[in-house]
């Protein structure tokens, strides 16, 4: 007999609200970091308020991605990830570099300087740098928020390799070892192509993978597990106050080393559960967040272009004495530009479909048992 118990998770869009709220928080974070308000212990107030749970949010994103993970052959996994993630990365790199050159030349009217700076931007994308670094004696800029796509690509492949070559009982140890290897490498050298970040986020993908297999998101938490997850949430800001810095995966910085990586993952799992609970209440706000979440890939790409190509530091300098106003104005401008480009891309897609209607064939549907 089929159960009538309502399911907490049941559709492919169940994480849209989480992604939508996350996108708004990410844009706000990148805006606020240009307007630092220092506390007495050296910690930036804006950094603390906006970034204290930044890596928890990123961990939640990776856990949500891992929920859709399926074990494949290593070759097929690599091909799939390159096809789905590398293509938007390359398009974003091209548009960012070109727009960066145009805007900087129009702003400063100095061709050699604009060309030099744009080469640094292009080099950062080619090397897949999560933050500004020096290679071959030359400084290159970061690839901006696109580090997330590269880290996801590397982490997905790493998890698939582990699942294919290790016996079941050794998989958790291999996943943990992968994260430790990435963290250890960050102490020595900044590897290109977000290899460090890809290794460190592998446990988050594995958490999502286990959450689906063992129905963690369908069942209530035990009292013990609930206390562990909430303890992680409380320890993260405590560590930030104690050390004067916040975690930053893109910079390969963790306040408490591997302990911070673990805390971010546990708190991220709680974030996923909380957003799924909020998702049950259907209202206009939830629908708004979900609409943003469905366009999260577009937003990541467009935000990378505007964040890197536009010299926002000039705007921030004008409002250095009025940081709150500067944050609000820049945030509105950033979101407005992202919305405008998203709308144009959607209209372009509709126009192409209208002008060049493709033949639609009804494919044969084959039903296969799912295990």
Task: Give a short summary of the structure.
The chain has 371 residues and is mainly alpha-helical. It has 15 helices and 2 strands.
Structure explained in plain terms:
With 371 residues, the protein is mostly helical. The protein has one domain. Helices cover 67% and strands 2% of the residues. The protein is built from 15 helices and 2 strands. The chain has a two-stranded antiparallel sheet with strand order 1-2. Helix 1 runs antiparallel to helix 3. The longest helix has 35 residues. It is globular, with a radius of gyration of 22 Å. The chain starts with 15 loop residues before the first helix and ends in a 16-residue tail after the last helix. 37% of the residues are buried. The N terminus and C terminus are likely disordered. Its main location: membrane. Pfam families: Acyl_transf_3. It is found in: Cell membrane.
Features:
transferase, Acyl_transf_3_dom, 67% helix, EC 2.3.1.-, 15 helices, mainly alpha, 371 residues, cell membrane, two-stranded antiparallel ribbon
How many alpha or pi helices? 15
Question: What sequence of helices (H) and strands (E) makes up the elements?
Answer: HHHHHEEHHHHHHHHHH
User: How many β-strand runs?
Assistant: 2
Strand residue percentage: under 5%
Which runs of at least 5 residues are low in confidence (pLDDT < 50)? 1-10, 359-371
**Helix/sheet category:** mainly alpha
How many discrete structural domains? 1
Order of strands, main sheet, comes to 1-2
Computed over alpha carbons, the radius of gyration is: 22 Å
Terminal Cα separation, in Å? 19 Å
DSSP helix fraction = 55-70%
Largest sheet: 2 strands, antiparallel
Mean of the pLDDT scores?
Answer: 86
Q: What characteristic shape results from the CA principal axes?
A: globular
InterPro entries: Acyl_transf_3_dom (IPR002656)
Domain Acyltransferase: 15-342
Subcellular location: Cell membrane
GO molecular function, one term: acyltransferase activity
